[in-house]
Amino acid sequence: AQSVSQHNHHVILSEAASLELGCNYSYGGTVNLFWYVQYPGQHLQLLLKYFSGDPLVKGIKGFEAEFIKSKFSFNLRKPSVQWSDTAEYFCAVNCSGGYNKLIFGAGTRLAVHP
Amino acid sequence: EPEVTQTPSHQVTQMGQEVILRCVPISNHLYFYWYRQILGQKVEFLVSFYNNEISEKSEIFDDQFSVERPDGSNFTLKIRSTKLEDSAMYFCASSEASGLTDTQYFGPGTRLTVL
Fold it and tell me: Considering A77, A101, B26, B41, which has the largest number of Cβ atoms within 10 A of its Cβ?
């Protein structure tokens, strides 16, 4: 069965630190990959997505993610985090033949201290 | 920017009662979804819906659950006889189409508490 793993459940950083959140998926076929963010008290918002082409995708608010097919990974990065990046981050995949069903990871709760 | 909306934001009910959670998808979207997130657990897919039919459902979506698009704007999730374990945040989502390249946009969620 398809699954998504996010390795870090809680991450605490100081402002200006660099961020990398891990995401691995298990599925051998075609996938589309997403990172969603949920700010405190708000709904899930799309941060970025990968469908095809350049495996390095850029999203909103300075985030980027790299799809490494050989490692089944789609890690999220930001070179310098801000306090306003405090949120929960969810990796999700959409597998071919899945009628657009998103499979989510468990989420990573990021706290950025000023 | 168009948004998916959900009502109510919080619903408290007694075990065994029926609840209806409401969603208004983005107006030109044709595909609708329900997901849920039990506290501390992953966001889980429940059901997808298109053209007044269920496209896919998970094993969670048993006979106690049903979905409906009663008019041109609303999309509802009904739980016929709630159980304690139905307590969760329920998210509605919609997308323009159902291809792999289509993005799902999520509503703010309804927190369901079953007592």
Answer: A101
